[in-house]
Amino acid sequence: MDDAHKTNVRDSSIEAYEKLSESNKLGRRRRQIFICYAKAGQPLCDYTVAQLLGLPINSITPRRGDLEKMGYLRDCGKLPAPPGNQNVHHFEIDPKCLEPGWTPKLLLKKKRPNRIEASVSEAARVLRAQRDKHRQDKGLLLAATPLFDGIA
Questions:
Q1: Which of 49-53, 105-109, 114-118, 147-151 has the lowest mean pLDDT?
Q2: Which of 25, 99, 100, 133 is the most exposed place for a label (fewest CB within 10 A)?
Q3: Do residues 3 and 41 make contact, with C-beta atoms less than 8 angstroms apart?
Q4: Integer CA distances (angstroms), 114 to 104, 111, 134, in order
Q5: Range list of β-strands (E), the chain
Q6: 104 part of a folded domain
Q7: pLDDT tens figures, 86-144
Q8: Total domains, the chain
Q9: Does the residue 109 lie in any domain?
């Protein structure tokens, strides 16, 4: 990078930005947030990122959390932040993501239990048990006879 194009952005942040641009692995909002951290070159809180991007904080926090879980960002601890100089968590680009061969951690979505499937499978289990009991009472359950042992 020549002197005419130098900014106050750290070289490592520029590397991270270039690496991210090449990889194209992040969604639009995550990319915006990551680029904001790269350009800042210093730890930022969610409120500051929201102000810099002109977005509501509730659209920043989940995506920043994703970037942290994936290994792109790391928590710097609590530092004073606007408004009111309250101590809040600040994050910065994790230098590990700049190392050659580094790959982001995958985000695994939690599968929510489907209540309908659970109740249907429970109902099916109860019905099978009732059917088997009825067959056993009537002598129709083949597995109960010695001739058919081992056949399900």
A1: 147-151
A2: 100
A3: no
A4: 30, 9, 30
A5: 73-81, 86-93
A6: no
A7: 899 999 999 888 888 878 777 666 666 666 666 777 777 888 888 888 777 776 655 54
A8: 2
A9: no
